[in-house]
Amino acid sequence: MRSDDSDLISGWRYSATLQLRTPLAYLERDGEFSPGPKEPPLVGPEENYLPDGVGFNSYGIWLRVIDPSILPPSTTATRATEGGPVRIGSTEEKELLSFLKSFRYIVETGETLDQMLSELAELSTSAPGNRRLWARYSEGDPLWPDSYFIGQLWMQLPKGVGPSKAEKLYLAGFRTVEEIQAAPDEELLRVEGVGKGLLRKLRESF
Q1: Which helix (H) or strand (E) is 171 found in, with range?
Q2: Fold annotation for 146-205
Q3: Which of 28, 75, 95, 121 has its Cα between 20 and 30 A from that of 181?
Q4: How far apart are CA 126 and CA 138, in angstroms?
């Protein structure tokens, strides 16, 4: 932004990243408005840095809001999502944000994996928009929504253990790190792709 552009800015609006991994706390701030020309502080921790040293994370950004008397808001502006761009202010955008908030609430507050899967099944049919979005996430992914939890398990496994191993462990019934920790060696060794080397890595890491 040029130094003489600040008088064009009426404020800043927070735009959360519309994806399954965005925490609920960020999604709930989507659309929040902060008046004035100065950009508000980053929401959440810094994960990376731009060349000029400005920190950012992948969960959302503050966007400039230009005084509408100077530049009328665009009616065709879009925002990126996992399923492709959606038009800002559209029904599709509202449905996706609502779905993601519900999804994140379930996965962040559920006490057990079975409970979360049951609540997600209810979410999938609770509204027309949810049914459409559920079908989109299911398309081409026969393991949905288990695939989400397989991804979460993989991120908790030791470095060097690939996603295919995480999938095999999950489908064999070892769906959480705690279940892997509690399993006898002989049961883990019966899982396809789990040998003594991987077993040792799992035991040492946990």
Answers
A1: helix 163-171
A2: DNA polymerase; domain 1 (1.10.150)
A3: 121
A4: 16
Angle at 107 between CA 32 and CA 177, to 5 degrees: 135
In degrees to the nearest 10, what's the CA dihedral of 165, 202, 120, 90? -70
Please state, in angstroms and rounded to a whole number, the distance separating the CA atoms of residues 109 and 25: 13
d(CA 161, CA 155): 9
Q: In what order do the strands lie in the sheet with 60-66?
A: 33-35, 9-16, 60-66
CA separation for the pair 181, 26 (Å, rounded): 32
| Close Cβ partners of 128 (under 8 Å, ≥ 6 residues apart) | none
Stretch (H or E) spanning 134: helix 128-138
Bridge partners (DSSP) listed for residue 192: none
Q: Quick one: tokens of 40?
A: 């508000």
Token digits for 198?
Answer: 């991987």
- For residue 19, report the phi and psi dihedrals to the nearest 5 degrees: -145, 160
Q: Which residue has the tokens 């202010």?
A: 89
User: Which residue's structure tokens are 């929040």?
Assistant: 32
Note the pLDDT tens digit of each residue in 19-76.
999 999 999 999 999 999 999 999 999 999 989 888 999 999 999 998 766 666 666 7
The model carries a pTM of: 0.88
Whole-number Å distance between alpha carbons of 40 and 114: 40
